[in-house]
Amino acid sequence: MTALLALLRRDIQVALRVGGGALIGVLFFLIVVVLMPFAVGPDLALLKKLGPAILWLGALLASLLTLDRLFAADHDDGSLDLLTMSRTPLELICLTKAIAHWLVAGLPLIVATPILGLLLNLDGDATVAVALTLLAGTPALTFTGMIGAALAVALRRGGLLLAVLVLPLSIPVLIFGVAASNAAVLEPAGFGAPLSILCALSLAGLVIGPLAAAASLRHGLD
Amino acid sequence: MTLIDLANPTRFLSLTAKILPWLAAATAILLAIGLYQSAMAPDDYQQGATVKIMFIHVPNAWLSMFVWGVMSLSALGTLVWRHPLADVSAKAAAPIGAAFTFLALVTGSLWGRPMWGTYWEWDARLTSVLILFLMYLGLIALWRAVEDPSRAARAAAVLTLVGAINIPIIKFSVDWWNTLHQPASVLRMGGSTLDKAFLIPLLVMAVAFSLLFITLHLAAMRNEILRRRVRALQMQQASQPRA
Amino acid sequence: MGRAAMRLTGSQLRCVRGGREIFAGLDFTADAGEPLAVVGANGAGKTSLLRLIAGLIAPAGGSVTFAGGEDDLSPAEQAHYLGHRDALKSALSVMENLTFWRAALGGEATDLDAALNAVGLDHIAQLPAAYLSAGQRRRLSIARLLAVKRPIWLLDEPTSSLDANGQAMMADLMRAHLSRGGVIVAATHLPLGIAARELRIGERVS
Predict the structure, then answer these.
(1) What digits encode the pLDDT tens for the residues A67-99?
(2) So where are chain C's domains?
(3) Which of A158, B67, B224, C33 is the most buried (most CB within 10 A)?
(4) CATH 3.40.1260.20 describes domain C7-200
(5) Structural domain for B111, as ranges
(6) Which residues pair with C186 in a beta bridge?
(7) Residue A160 in 3-state DSSP?
């Protein structure tokens, strides 16, 4: 337990000290959202309708891009070798790293949502609802993405190949995330079901992600 | 250096050399029977002659999922049992699975055309098959991106198994998403109420296509084994001193 | 200690990487108190052997066993691995790096100030690791061996990037570890600085 807490603390410290890793994710999120009106036109009614979809796509891409180096940095400097030799199961180490990543990269996205909701003409309730769906759904994105990040280490490849492999797996999260957000904007009655499924997806990811990531890391170190 | 782990694959090669001609012949005969029966099947009272696309579409759709199952078993073989043929099987199956999935997509789209008036409709079934196709392509890209087959094998195995868990979830989500946006699918099989005149040719075609897959898979595995031998020999040659 | 003397044994080890056989049928024993120096040409598999013992490469055949240690831990979990890469985060201070590894590795913890003192870094404990020279980074990695007590030391070119002074320090630390009944396996083509039994690998019968 002390080992995992130490790892959590180290990863957060490193992320906060090195060039604001968390900030770049939020900045990317902001830019994606700002680009949208240029693509679809500054029609506020249309933006209000597309708002949840835009926010979710932005969050999806931001989490995918920031996850790329989740394990690669530790692999490059040899930390991963030592972590596998520690007396803590590799699955828990992967889980801890993912949680640390979500705290520094996922949580800021959710904090930024109200500001971005303003730009997309979402009213107060809708913004809170979208933020809530992101809170329930972004862990699932992190846990799916961490499989890709572990494969990146095993394959010595990153970038596009991983996006191609991981994005289809995150379709369910996108579907239910946008559905829950839309329900909140249009008809609050339909909000509960997709939100619960979103939570279920995050919980399933919590189990599958670390198992798969540890399996690919264990074979990918040599 | 020695050639690695060839004892088992060697037996596989000699065994399949004997079986393959028979398998190929059986596939050809069954396909011929199935095609003839399909051609002779009556037209549907609603869909007319287009219903005959079903005899191609359904076996392909069935194989698109079956092949992922075969790859998942192979993935377990790679990760758990470390069988030397497992990753050969997984690698050989991926392009074949992608081809069947692609055919399922194309025939599904052709089948839907008279009813939808467009070649593509975001229909729940077709959308799921499209995502499956993308996942096959990603897996093939992974196999191709990495030079060392054993390294690629582990990663591909993990991804295949994650995919196997995820495919039902994706299917469920897409179905749910679809009912949210439009009425239910037009590509509807009658299921067990399907008339005998349709059911028998359909079953024959399903068996014929499954045999076709087995034949192609074994042949592709042979190629992959030979390709790896060539690679091993070339590496051996590279590590030898100049004469 | 009340335990039997420690002994690290590898039997019939076979290592395959990228379809290429690095070595096969390799046997070795490393006893407590006597360092084992793995020597051989470049590419002979010195690093591969160490990584195999450390559990970072799965052997294609054979096994590594460790007698006299803790039975419920694998040899890798009782080993320190000092590799080419130093596992340091530049953003963290010297002390933070060491504190992290003491907590993460798990094992009998010791006084960190003493460890830093032993490798001669105690005066810059609060500086970010980014400012360290190659030799100082090496020293900090070595401090990790002292921060957590593990009976097996797997050292890959332990004296590389160390000056004469540092090499003497490393020799002292190795001697102290051996005298406490520890096991050392070191891959090197430089003199280790202490008397060692040699394990020559990569001599092929062609």
Answers:
(1) 888 898 898 888 999 999 888 899 999 999 999
(2) 7-200
(3) B67
(4) no
(5) 25-39+49-185+194-225
(6) C37, C155
(7) helix
